[in-house]
Write a structure and sequence with these properties.
Helix content of chain A: 25-40%
Oligomer: homodimer
Strand content of chain A: 15-25%
Number of strands of chain A: 19
Number of helices of chain A: 19
Largest sheet of chain A: 7 strands, mixed
Structural class of chain A: alpha/beta
Low-confidence stretches of chain A: 99-106
Radius of gyration of chain A: 26 Å
Shape of chain A: elongated
Largest interface: A-B, 96 and 97 residues
Chain lengths: 577, 577
């Protein structure tokens, strides 16, 4: 069977940074060429970043994207790389509006494309057929679907090209690849991380390979973009579904692999197929064999941790920050956020502030000190008692108002330090708190990025234990004080307060929230799982009532199948059953 | 020609309040029956409220909606109203998922329907064909499109029924109504207010009437739901496009009108048409003539004001608040918000707080006092100097950090009063500020609802003048002090500060923002309008850089074609050109 040396470039684009994104692709092409690759593919929208949201409806943005694709083809040619065909994802347009709508609403004018660059020109283009419009995706809003197949004739074999969602649909263009007789199917993707998504994604790739009787090359982008974390994990499987090569998750990588590709057996193509001959030459003589490049899949906790670290690092860097600041309470949430931040951008760029009140226990102060020392971050202490008292006295505050005041004074301190020194404020709330509204808006929720907003409290604890265990096994200092992990959670806004005075135990609470929020079950179905009806009603009422707070919350990395944000769109004004 | 007495019920539903929404429809049916109506139609999703967003993917919500429709049919029967056919909008499902998607993402399981209730039963159902998925709408995300036509045989005439967006598409089912030979087309709608939308909506209704050679009855819901304000404006036009009846905007109304309906001329129907015979009886003998009910269209400023008032009132009431609180600076924004709030829920439920700092001018204090007295709202003064100083001193704050601190202490005061007394906090920022980020996050932006967030500064001024002039002409006290309208805008966060020290003059700024934000033009196109390139770049950079703040902002009533929120979806992490 003919052999093809294939390269997949797992790049980390930034939305709108056409120059920087192109430079990454060019770098991948240089390295692919140096290794003798005969075809390079990079991810969906690798030129523009993904998701571009309503930027897809701006003709100026589309013009810039088109220029960037043409310029990249020319740069490849100038650098002597133009014999290497490069498949690159990009938005294209403007095209005629999808349909006659009498309103003045902006409608889709763009397509989500993969183009082939060769000998200094754009020689072929494929437009994505299936536009995901569920979960975090709004593609039907901004893109016009394509309806043609693309097949490249390359060194005696046929290569079909599709984009992301096209692979997921049984009724999609992937079902016609068998008819095209292509021996290699290249899928360019921008597929964000979700816990356990590998368990769906890799079997899908395998299934498609066997269905299409074709090698499948799946290339994904990597990196954080707002609340999404693209995890890479690009993979090549043979026609039996066997993994030939696999890129590491959560970092940039160039995956190069030799694949045996079956040549086409008959000459006819299915209707609506665009076949472009790139080079009629047979595959070159045997090159030196490549080292096997199959990354190990990290375990669940390592994947989650790395997703949070990458999401945080890329939010900081891509938005032009150099440092972060966060409040350190001595509790587990702020400790885990500090450890994530230090892993993301280095402890030397992390600023922690202890803000003890009259209700803060001695233990909390010690735990915060201990954390700062273990991680080696910058640490200052700003007691809040003298700042809280004048407000409390002048306004005669009691109860919840007085409790929230403390959290809001802390928010003021962090925002003031941010304004003085340019740090990004991290807010340390977890998904459980966010679900039930157990936080003070404009107080502890203040900040530009929320590293653990999609991590339930029980999982925060598991991740803390995991991160410490990794430190132990590598001989370094565990970052998180044991005491922060083991002591009962408390907001410490009044004397001897414990979270469980107000909320169900966290294992019960997280179980109900997993069912009601993440799996979107109804009340009856949650109760059927074995939870007490009264507790379920209490929790679901809290969740529904906290929607207004969540709408005003910072973004943070999505790691679950249902993160707060555009993944879960519900009204604020709503009377529950 | 046969005559039909037709009633359109312009109800104000609340999302999820099936009992309350049904009660409104029942009340409309009672009144319609009393006036001899032979057909009643209410709006799209009048049973459930609109938009229901991802509630459409909850089987429990759909079951509740289905039960509510059945229960309404039974109630109508029990009350002796069941000879009156009622067309009611509601979600229906769960149905099979739209397509085989291998991911576990929730996909549409519901349809957006209009059902016909008669003699205690649901006798016919129409499912919306065209699902708007642009602007604020996400219907393709949550609904499965229908593909059948519905024609009702009623007293010798044929009545076609469609839903909202179906009317807007030239290629939609409306194009087949002529073939059905229906003499009356009933369109049930949930169409939110936008400035100048009448100029599109009514001509569309007229055009469809003449195209279909049919009377068109357009019934819309009314009321605020989160950031949308449904404006009613239900209308009936004859087959030449002449207005026969029109409901007032921005309030509930039952519109009853006698229409001459052409009987069907031939017996065949287009394919995929469901014809349901309701009653073969001819139209009843002449009843007493109805008074002409054609509401005057209010002028532009009155419409805008009423939209803001209704949006604010319904947010307050539907979320269970009884009172609001806001800071009164003496400036025009807080003055206009106070006047809107007083018009919405009565001055006796509005609490104003003056929070002067050492930089507040004597004039500002006097203007705030004056405003409070003119409106007759509750007014207290909380000087902030003694609260700001301890923080400023302890943290050694200067510059922007010290300026923001003042705004944040004010935010703390309002939130503390809200926590003590249960008031909803209104935040008073206008669209211009929000566009360029000229506000302090967690400071003056703190609050649950933002009445003027979609109103540019120059329009705030026009509305203030309009509201005062209305007061003058009705002989009451103009609510807004002249001085608040005429003095140069200032944030008063440092001595002698004026907005125009930092920003371009507001007429220039609002012109650029209208082009860049509301009309979504690119940089070059904005400059072509005659604006200075450097100013355009300055402004667009500010707009792009303020996205993170806007994401954390309160919701407020949409009045423009492009409001911040789900109307305009852009990344935070983004490198512009």
């Amino acid at each position: 069977m003919p052999r093809l040396r294939l390269a997949l470039g797992q790049t980390n684009p930034l939305v709108g940074d056409f120059a920087g994104n192109s430079e990454q692709i060019l770098d991948a092409a240089r390295r692919a060429h140096a290794q003798g690759a005969e075809l390079l593919a990079v991810g969906e929208m690798a030129i523009s970043g993904y998701p571009i949201e309503d930027l897809a409806s701006r003709p100026s943005f589309l013009a810039a994207a088109r220029n960037a694709v043409v310029a990249l083809a020319e740069r490849l040619h100038e650098e002597g790389l133009s014999e290497l065909p490069v498949i690159v994802g990009h938005p294209d347009g403007p095209f005629e509006k999808r349909s006659e709508v009498t309103s003045n609403a902006p409608t889709a004018i763009a397509q989500n494309c993969a183009s082939v660059l060769h000998r200094g020109r754009v020689i072929a283009r494929y437009a994505k057929h299936h536009l995901p419009n569920y979960s975090v995706f709004d593609e039907f809003r901004v893109f016009i679907p394509g309806d043609e197949l693309l097949v490249l004739g390359l060194k005696g074999v046929d290569v079909a090209v599709i984009v992301c969602e096209d692979l997921w649909r049984d009724d999609g263009p992937v079902s016609r690849v068998l008819e095209t007789d292509a021996g290699l199917l290249v899928v360019v993707n921008a597929s964000p991380f979700e816990r356990d998504k590998d368990e769906v994604r890799l079997p899908l790739v395998n299934r498609r390979a066997t269905e299409a009787e074709s090698v499948v090359a799946y290339v994904n982008i990597v990196g954080g973009q707002d609340d999404l974390v693209f995890d890479g994990d690009s993979v090549v499987v043979d026609a039996t579904g066997k993994i030939l090569a696999r890129a590491p998750k959560f970092r940039e990588h160039l995956l190069v692999v030799d694949v045996e590709v079956a040549p086409p057996r008959h000459a006819t193509l299915p209707p609506n197929t665009n076949r472009v001959e790139i080079s009629p030459d047979p595959v070159a003589a045997e090159a030196a064999p490549l080292p096997r490049d199959v990354a190990e899949l990290p375990d669940d906790r390592e994947q989650l941790w790395n997703a949070l670290v990458l999401g945080t690092r890329d939010y900081v860097k891509k938005n032009g920050f150099r440092s972060v600041i966060l409040g350190l309470s001595g509790g587990i949430d702020s400790a885990v956020c500090a450890a994530i931040a230090a892993d993301a951008i280095g402890a030397e760029n992390v600023y922690g502030v202890g803000m003890p009140s009259r209700y803060s226990s001695e233990g909390s102060r010690t735990d915060a000190d201990d954390l700062a020392e273990r991680i080696g971050l910058h640490y200052t202490v700003e007691p809040i008692a003298d700042l809280v008292l004048p407000v409390e006295t002048q306004l005669k505050l009691t109860g919840i108002a007085a409790e929230n005041l403390q959290a809001r004074i802390r928010g003021i301190i962090l925002m003031a330090e941010s304004n003085m020194h340019g740090h990004l404020v991290l807010t340390t709330g977890n998904k459980t708190e966010l679900s039930v509204g157990y936080s003070t808006i404009y107080g502890d929720s203040a900040g530009g990025f929320a590293p653990i907003k999609d991590v339930p409290k029980t999982l925060v604890r598991e991740l803390a234990l995991w991160r410490n265990s990794i430190a132990v096994s590598s001989g370094s200092t565990p970052p998180i004080p044991d005491n922060s992990i083991t002591k009962p959670p408390s907001a410490e806004l009044r004397p001897d307060q414990l979270d469980e005075d107000t909320l169900p135990p966290y294992d019960v609470l997280d179980g109900i929230l997993d069912a009601y929020v993440t799996r979107a079950l109804g009340r009856e179905d949650v109760i059927t799982l074995g939870y007490d009806a009264e507790t379920v009603d209490f929790v679901t009422r809290l969740v529904d009532g906290a929607e207004w707070k969540r709408r005003q919350g910072a973004i943070g990395p999505k790691i679950s199948g249902m993160a707060f944000g555009r993944d879960r769109r519900l009204p604020i004004t709503y009377r529950a059953g």
